[in-house]
Every structure is written in structure tokens, then in C-alpha cells.
Amino acid sequence: MSTTQSERLRELLEPLVTSQGLDLEEIAVDSVGRKRVLRVVVDSDSGADLDAIADVSRALSAKLDETEAMGDAAYDLEVGTPGAERPLTEHRHFVRATDRLVKFQMTEDGELVARILAVDEEGLDVEVPGVKGRKATTRRIAFPEIAKARVQVEFNRKDTKDKKEEEA
The whole model's pTM is what? Predict the structure, then answer.
């Protein structure tokens, strides 16, 4: 997809997504066989449930049909969320990942897996899990030190809410 088409689609669709209380994270047009697929990825600070996805999908579909922004050829519209192991590229992504385990590719020091404790404008406070019985340590990471970051899936972690209920 050309940059200009991507920019036009973003300009057209972003106000609609925002009006639904969501952020437009990504737009991609792919060819699948003879069909084209327009993939729209949305999210919000509180997540996007199925009802919100359905609402925004209907609004986007109507707008695309009204403006013919995708042309006359057939296409499928897919609206979804970034998924569990999303890359963190924007400040808001790091804020949303607070209390999540993240794998960082550092600009100089290799990789680091740590839990995000707090986020501000300059960087992150993280907790690095202890190894072989050692206690976890905290560390400050400035945004310029991060080359890449991706949320990690945790299957065996108890939810924070569950911990609070156990302590009560």
C-alpha cells in the first residue's frame, strides 16, 4: 500500500475510531488471493471489548462505503486489537502495559525481561525478576535506551485482583 493511501485511510478513519473512544493503532491493506483485506487495529486504555469492536467495525464499514476510499474492487474489513504479545512503540502502549512482563531489546545492553511498575514522560521504572532465589530488583530505563519492547504472555501468573482477595 502506498504511503499516500495509508495516510488517506488514516485521516479518514482515525476520527471515527477516536469518536468511539478507541485509538487507531495500525492500518494495513493486504492481498489474499484475489481479494484485498483492510486490517484495522484499535485499542484503548481499558482495552477494547467485542461490542466496541463491532460498533467501530460498523462505523468504519459505512464510512468506507460512503467515500469509496478502497475503490470499486471487493475487499474484506477486519477490525481487531493488537493481541497479547504486542510491540510497545508509543508512550501510551507502555502506560497500558503497566504491571505486565515485557521483553526489552536495549540499544546497548542486549535483552532485559522486566515488569513495568510505572511510566512517566522520560522512561520506565521496572522490576527485574530475581534469578535462582535472589530478590527482584528495580531499575530505571529511559526511553532512548529501548530499541524494541514486547509484552510477554504469562500463563502461570496470578492476577493482582486474586492476590488482594487472598490477602483479605
Answer: 0.71
